[in-house]
Amino acid sequence: STGRMLRQIIALCAAASAAAFAPGAGVLPKAGVRAATATSPRMAVFPGSFSDSVPFLKQPTNLDGTLVGDVGFDPLGFSDIF
After folding, report:
1. How many Å apart are CA 57 and CA 53, to the nearest integer?
2. 3-class DSSP assignment, residue 35
3. What is the pLDDT of residues 12-51, one digit of tens each?
4. What's residue 7's pLDDT?
5. Where are the alpha helices (DSSP H) in the chain?
6. What is the largest CA-CA distance in the chain?
């Protein structure tokens, strides 16, 4: 019947979605096997002051914190124009 087939389809979909979050065989490392130690990359240090809001951009010269809402965020350079 149609109702039984619909319940089977729903049950298969539920099982498939639950299986998507279960770890597969061979995913977890075996006991006694240690992972290789990774070294973290070194950060490059550049001269000058950088923005706190966008750390890879230079601090805008016109934004010194005296204006209301000034957090040093001016990636398009509007503070140089206006």
Report:
1. 9
2. coil
3. 888 888 777 776 666 666 666 666 676 777 767 777 788 7
4. 92
5. 2-20, 78-81
6. 75
Q: What is the CA radius of gyration of the chain?
A: 28
Q: Which residues are registered as beta bridge partners of 50?
A: 58
Q: Using the predicted structure, report yes or no on whether residue 1 has a pLDDT greater than 80.
A: no
Among 66, 39, 41, 61, smallest CA distance to 49 is for: 61
Which region holds residue 26: left if phi is over 0, alpha if psi is between -120 and 50, else beta?
A: left
Q: What is the mean pLDDT of residues 54-75?
A: 81
d(CA 75, CA 57): 7
Residue the block writes with tokens 């998507």: 20
- Cα–Cα distances (Å) from 28 to 17, 20, 23, 24, in that order, read 20, 15, 8, 8
Beta partners for 58? 50
